[in-house]
């Protein structure tokens, strides 16, 4: 029986090549999208899951409630991890690390900037990285050791044995390589080249170990399986508060590793998701695209059911019951799905490098993995069953008497469902296209937002102790090149906020509330170099008095509700006078409002030298001029630089990635729709071939004939449009709500999409109708 | 074998109700060859469809081999049909996508005959119908007479007790038509009951008995001698 089904299915495909190609093409494209999306989603969901203990690893976090604003802070004090260890039976291990830092690493004249974590002894017992050589846990107990990744080892030592070699860090201390491990996989939160132990004998670490304020480390705990996390949180909160009685604003708790990547966004102390939204969105898009392709199959199958009706009638007469027929038609759709799937897998293989570039990942298709095998089965069965469901039920319900008598007009009763399906397809396509445009407009809107400074032709060079020492001479030499307009230095890059705290004390500060301030140290010429507008007062003025003044931004003035900020006294550790108010500058997320900012003069804590190239100076020529100056004064270090506009652009990486992917998928969705439309149109024409001939004889023009056929489809598009517009409006308005600065959806957008879809429909239908409309009517009439 | 009593069948459209069969009563015995005749619209085909369990009556009784089948559901009808009844149509009704061999094999598949047994029986019947040499051709590659032979081969391959033929020669020239009638007569002589709807007095002469219908009722029965 099965053999018979396969035979019939295969012959039907071969005999109806147009039908087969249309369906296979649509399903293949749909499946390519689905496979890519699922690979991407799998990679996102599998983030950090390679750690054996991932279910029991947590990061300690704090909710810091500066009334009325609340922020979530992963920064912890250094002694917390050690103190938590052994104090609670549910906590198995703890570890503390520095933030990821970039350091100059040197071996035999090879100098490279490499990423490094400083980590405590239990780090490798909590986290599972693949060890290639040595014993990393032992290495972390010896402050003279360092652990290196495979690729970093290759970069420094080539094929030589890395173990026990000495590398020098930041031109200071040398460390012995005590272990080598495989590079962390692409979906690891920790990304690094080196891991270095804490040196508990150093004065710095000794002092920090006594310090229970000033948080700048990450603390991790591994619990027993099924630990009571509420109790663990309570314990951690108690330990921290026992040691810092003054901390009235913080609540401490644990955040599970399984959520680190997908749920990384916090608002007002609550987790508001993160990448998970895109994971969900793309899963939905994958299913929608596959459904659109399935609908093509349903429509074409029922449209040409007249051709199958006779077969159904004969089979029923010969004793087939409905169930057997349904099985047969499902077989056909599943075979089609299988063919499409095999093709899709081949294309996914070919397109994988392109897709990896697009999404900046290193995905691969492992055909023999259970995930892939089960996934394939699900995709094929889903597609086959969904696509085959309606045709199977429809075709198998034919009455053999009517069919064989020829009085049965097959396909007629399926017209309405078919129209509904076409409308559904177009609703989804219009939605995807409109949404894509809205996402793009929103990103542009944010990019066009005034950021309060001029990021173009602005260069940042990371500072070092040599640079700091020779800053005055460097600045003079830079200005002497004639290419540089201004130079300053800052404690963090202008594109990042490294420092947040409560507000300074000031007259009129509310007793029970606080305001979160961002902070920055800067040198003279700060506003000149950055191109920031001073709204009131002045910049630092190169006098000793600079150390006692502070600049604040407009947001600070508004948050503190100050009437005359200039000249006001602020107390932040010591006394400052507000010298000037600057415009709001976007240093953090361009999607969020600018927070209050204070800047005070402290040239000795610089991390970046900021250099403004004169107008019209070619950036590469500017860099050429900078390089010898920095090499001269900072010979030990590599010359590195960043263009601020590029650094700022990185803030859009995720959104632009999402925008690119949705562009492609929306385009493909509409393409699959058009294939289906073309199929339906050519089928309609086949059925109306004689009518077209008669009309032509009666004097209809080609244009009139094209309109006749097109109108049938254009009506459906109009209905789809009427449904899609409010739906898109509702969904996208909701999405836009998460941005403080967002566009309002324009009616013109829908008008444009509407015209585009109508035109596309006209073109697709006309191309298919043209042949019939141009044909000699005698031919069509004779063929009857 | 067949006993129908007061059988009624109506066709309804929004405005008109047409009576296709009007309290029809008739009997067909095992081994008979019966021809049903009458003008267009007299209910011949409706009767044949009900006899073949492709359609069910609105009123009345239909006893097939001692079993009342008038209100069987589709599944039961299909089951009874595939084991007992073979069909021959005016327009042959072969499946275009299947070869001659595969078309004839189809009823055996539905009755669950094993593959090796199927090959044996299909070859046997094709041989008997003298179309063995065409076994791998598709229906479109055959003449009308050949197609009807295949259709008859398909109808008899399951060794049914009853063959229902709906104007089996209607699409054939007289020579091919005679061949088909000879084949049916042979089958009848070997014990198969045959009920044939026809317009052709010539064809009807091959039967034992002619039932003439008018407006859904039996108007006359001729016994052939």
TrEMBL record, chain A:
Membrane-topology descriptor: Multi-pass membrane protein
A molecular-function term among this protein's GO annotations: transmembrane transporter activity
Domain MacB-like periplasmic core: 22-238, 430-627
Segments crossing the lipid bilayer: 20-41, 278-300, 329-351, 371-395, 420-440, 664-685, 705-731, 743-765
GO cellular component: plasma membrane
ABC3 transporter permease C-terminal domain mapped to chain residues: 284-400, 663-773
Main location: membrane
Keywords annotated in UniProt: Cell membrane, Membrane, Transmembrane, Transmembrane helix
Name of the protein in its database record: ABC transporter permease
Natural source organism: Mucilaginibacter terrigena
UniProtKB/TrEMBL annotation, chain B:
Domain of life: Bacteria
Record keyword Cell division present: no
PROSITE patterns given in the database record: ABC_TRANSPORTER_1, ABC_TRANSPORTER_2
Keywords: ATP-binding, Nucleotide-binding, Transport
InterPro entries: AAA+_ATPase, ABC_transporter-like_ATP-bd, ABC_transporter-like_CS, ABC_transpr_LolD-like, MacB-like_ATP-bd, P-loop_NTPase
GO molecular function term, any single one: transmembrane transporter activity
Entry protein name: ABC transporter ATP-binding protein
Organism: Mucilaginibacter terrigena
Lineage, broadest ranks: Bacteria, Pseudomonadati, Bacteroidota, Sphingobacteriia, Sphingobacteriales
